[in-house]
Amino acid sequence: MSVILAIESSCDETSVAICNNGKITANVIANQTIHENYGGVIPELASRVHQQNIVPVVQQALIDAKVSKKDINAVAFTRGPGLLGSLLVGVSFAKSFALALDLPLIAVNHMHAHILAHFIEDPKPDFPFLCLTVSGGHTQIVLVRDYADMEIIGETLDDAAGEAFDKTAKLLQLPYPGGPLIDKHAKLGNPHAFKFPEPQIKGLDYSFSGFKTAILYFIRDKEKENPGFINEHLNDICASVQYSIVQILLNKLKKAAKTHGIKDIAIAGGVSANSGLREALQMLAKEQGWNVFIPAFEYCTDNAAMIAIAGYHKYLANDFVGQDIAPAARMIF
What we know:
By secondary structure, the protein is α/β, with parallel strands linked by helices. It has 2 domains: about 5-115 and about 300-315, Nucleotidyltransferase, domain 5 (2-Layer Sandwich); about 125-295, Nucleotidyltransferase, domain 5, CATH 3.30.420. It has 9 helices and 10 strands. The chain has helices at about 45-65, 85-100, 110-115, 160-170, 180-185, 210-225, 230-260, 275-290, 305-315, and strands spanning about 5-10, 15-20, 25-30, 75-80, 105-110, 130-135, 140-145, 150-155, 265-270, 290-295. Strands 3-2-1-4-5 form a 5-stranded mixed β-sheet, sandwiched between helices. Strand 7 and strand 8 (about 150-155) form a beta hairpin.
């Protein structure tokens, strides 16, 4: 019998989940709308709102799961990577909660948790599998041999794919968060209307810094030639940028699958909610004979359910940490 309370506070979502014997019975997420006024997450404001949200979110998760504090067997939490102030709120609460009830602590790597989100619901991938983990801060191809045995075989050398989406949204004067809006407009546009260069990086690594610069110059020059260009071609720009980013991601993933001879392919992270990426992956899977695994939308963005399922497998392995544990803005994978 294991009932695990899990806390996620790496960025601007305060989330708490309950995992009962490997089943998620509650997953509560409190979003922070305050950042919309600034066009991005303000770390100091994020940590303050976490402090306001953490207690009511924990209480709601316990209610949803129909358990009490006395039923909890362990406390799992995101140790990192993430915003240090935000992490500090979650880690401090987890340590206090565990200390008060004499419970073991489980530290979870945020990126590991994104990958293990595939084990929340069926169907689940078999080991080994490849996972393309894509978010605002990370772009990685991970070889997953077991719940605790993961190796990054390709990653971005500079900026993440999610950052390229966010930067494009800002250039197009779309409100924050811009990634979902690009996806929305892309559905109405022509993905081949404009062509953007694909970074020529050897091996399985990515680079999006030059790609972002190319988009910046493209929009600047087009607007100079034709003021109002963005408004006239918004859907086509979004569709073309999204198509280019997706192709960059999948070309490397295809190469990784061939190199390692693996047919079970997964995607994870906030950008895995992008409909263009999901559809293109499904099409590529049919062509390559892959078995594809995509989490439900609620488990793509930051959430405590993925921390809970990762914590559950660490609990089974007796992988606990002491009260001296500290948050880590950057973590070794």
